[in-house]
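Attaching the record inline, Q. Sequence:
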Amino acid sequence: MLDIFITSRVRRKIIVIYAKYPDFKTHVRGLAKLIKEDAGNIQRELKRLEKVGFLTSEKQGNTKVYSTNKHFPIFKELQSIVLKSQRTTQKKGVL
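Structure, as predicted:
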């Protein structure tokens, strides 16, 4: 269902991860391994999501680590949408 509203497959996967697990922190390569997508595409989407305020980042050595901005104005609503869409998908038997 989220694919109707969020057309970028990579962006959708990133939003689902960070909305479902708001304490999740990772770097580009770790996220690439987790969601099985190209690191370049992930990096581009992470930058976009950070620019709008959904994600924050911090440098840890030479690595940039991204985490959810729980103070993002529509974070709770977005999280609710993600969780509801996950339940709907699971009820239909699609994973």
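The chain has one domain: 2-87. Residues 75-91 form the longest helix (17 residues).

More tomorrow.
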